[in-house]
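Memo subject: From amino acid sequence to discrete backbone structure tokens
Keywords: amino acid chain, backbone geometry, structure tokens, three-dimensional fold.
Body of memo: The sequence and its backbone structure tokens, given next.
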Amino acid sequence: MGKHQNVNAIRRIESRIGTKERNTGVDFKTNRKAWEFAETKQDINHGINQLSKSRVSGQKTLVVPQRLAKTAKDAATGTGIRVENVGGKTLKKGRRS
């Protein structure tokens, strides 16, 4: 544990997806899925960049607090990256259109 200040959100995400936070690269990763958690507006673009670079062949998801939902949806438009809140509710589907 280390990169993020919001420990409660990280624990909630870890329990929901069943994996621990990683020290390098994307924050959470399973065989075919990757998640990146963004706490601030500045983290959103960094998270999208991290997910774009990831070699995971499946779903790539940016997880944001509800207060950053609109900013994250706007930033992720056209990238193919899915946006969801900390609780797991999908805010934007991961399509490139």
